[in-house]
Structures are given as structure tokens and as C-alpha cells.
């Protein structure tokens, strides 16, 4: 388990719209672009094996602008395909705030970052004392039916609060800006409230942009 003292000041970043990583959660990724293959190779040579997942800013004039807050994950699984691609799993470690992008000779982007303010991410699994699971699952079932989605409902019922909320936040198909709002939620209860609002508004057929502005 990574300790705060082990966290580096600079991490490689992977800007991928809609791909959300949260602390203590797992994100599978398919790596095939040469620059990100190099990023993976370089990351595996470091003790922490960290890669920072960041949402690009869709509302900025600059095409390469990034949101300030991302989440770093440790490469915990990887396998190579016959044609040189990699299937990897990132295990979420902690969120961070980008201070500045660093210059260098790598084909991928690297950022100097600050971990302050996210010490909770390195702690124990969070619980949500005010979570009404039955009401939430009823809402979720209506959402899944409206999208013709299926799931293992018994597994959802048995999952602990954090696993349930974080997994749904990562998997459900919301806009990148909405994913960013879920990432920036200060705690599990706030993330659950944000997720509930997004689901409710989607059921009403509204625009997600109108919800979180």
C-alpha cells in the first residue's frame, strides 16, 4: 500500500475523456498508441508504477487543456497481446491537483502535481451513513430499464457503499464534465448525491450540462 511519503511530485498523465478513476477502485485500460506504450513502459520502471488519469477540458478554447484535478492509479495488472498492445488495470491511489505541466523529451505528457487536500483517499474505505440503498436501487433499476441495460442485482445489493457508488460513477455513460464532478466530490456522500442527480435528470430526458452548471 502506497503511503503519502511515497507519492512523487511528478506523474505521467493520460488524458482520456469519460474514463474516470477513483481511489480504491479499478479501471481497465487498453493501451495501443505508441506514446502511451512508452508511458506504460516508463511507469513500470518506477517503484510506485503510477499513471495519472485526467479529463480534458471540453469547454476550453485550448485543445490540450486539462482539468486541474485528476486521480493517480498504480499499474497492478498488465498483459501483452500478440500484436504488441497491452491490457492493464489501474488501481486508484489518490486524487491530485495539477500545478503545471513539465517540459521534457517524453512523447507523453507529464505534470507536476500536489497531493494536499486528498489525504482521505489514502485512508480506509468510506461509508455513507445516510445512504438509502433500497431507494437508490429502485432509481437505478428504472435507469437501467430506460437504457436497456442489465446487471447482477444481487451483487449490487451486497456491495459495500463505496464500491457500489464508485463503480457506478466510473461505469455509467455520463458526459466527461459530469464525470469530473463525480471525481471532485469531496466525499462519498456528496458523490452519491451527485450520481443520484445525474440519474434522475437522465430519466427526465434533460441535458446533463444543465444539472451541474
Explain what the structure shows.
By secondary structure, the protein is of the alpha+beta class. It folds into 2 domains: 4-122, LON domain-like (Archaeosine Trna-guanine Transglycosylase, Chain: A, domain 4); 133-212. The protein contains 7 helices and 6 strands. It has helices spanning 34-44, 133-146, 153-158, 161-171, 176-184, 188-203, 208-212, and strands at 10-15, 26-31, 50-54, 69-80, 86-102, 109-114. It has a 5-stranded mixed β-barrel with strand order 1-3-4-5-6. Strand 5 and strand 6 form a beta hairpin. Helix 2 packs parallel to helix 6 (188-203), helix 4 packs across helix 6 and helix 5 packs antiparallel against helix 6 (188-203). Mean pLDDT is 91; it is low at 207-213.
**CA radius of gyration:** 18 Å
- What is the β-strand count? 6
Characterize the largest beta sheet: strand count, sense, and whether it forms a barrel.
5 strands, mixed, barrel
| Span of the ends, CA to CA | 37 Å
* Structural domain tally: 2
Domain Lon N-terminal: 11-203
Keywords: Hydrolase, Protease
InterPro entries: Lon_prtase_N, Lon_prtase_N_sf, PUA-like_sf
Protein name: ATP-dependent protease
Amino acid at each position: 500500500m502506497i503511503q503519502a511519503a511515497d507519492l512523487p511530485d511528478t506523474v505521467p498523465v493520460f488524458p482520456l475523456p469519460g474514463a474516470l478513476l477513483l481511489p480504491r477502485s479499478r479501471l481497465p485500460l487498453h493501451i495501443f498508441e505508441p506514446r502511451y506504450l512508452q508511458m506504460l513502459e516508463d511507469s513500470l520502471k518506477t517503484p510506485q508504477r503510477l499513471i495519472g488519469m485526467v479529463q480534458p477540458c471540453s469547454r476550453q478554447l485550448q485543445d490540450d487543456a486539462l482539468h486541474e484535478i485528476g486521480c493517480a492509479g498504480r499499474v497492478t495488472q498488465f498483459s501483452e497481446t500478440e500484436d504488441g498492445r497491452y491490457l492493464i488495470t489501474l488501481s486508484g491511489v489518490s486524487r491530485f491537483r495539477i500545478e503545471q505541466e513539465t517540459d521534457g523529451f517524453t512523447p507523453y505528457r507529464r505534470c507536476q502535481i500536489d497531493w494536499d487536500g486528498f489525504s482521505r483517499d489514502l485512508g480506509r474505505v468510506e461509508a455513507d451513513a445516510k445512504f438509502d440503498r433500497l431507494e437508490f436501487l429502485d432509481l437505478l433499476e428504472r435507469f437501467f430499464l430506460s437504457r436497456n441495460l442489465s446487471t447482477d442485482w444481487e451483487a449490487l445489493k451486497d456491495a459495500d457503499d463505496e464500491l457500489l457508488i464508485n463503480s457506478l460513477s466510473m461505469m455509467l455513460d455520463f458526459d466527461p464534465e459530469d464525470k469530473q464532478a463525480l471525481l471532485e466530490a469531496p466525499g462519498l456522500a456528496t458523490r452519491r448525491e451527485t450520481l443520484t442527480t445525474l440519474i434522475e435528470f437522465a430519466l427526465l430526458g434533460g441535458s446533463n450540462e444543465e444539472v451541474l452548471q
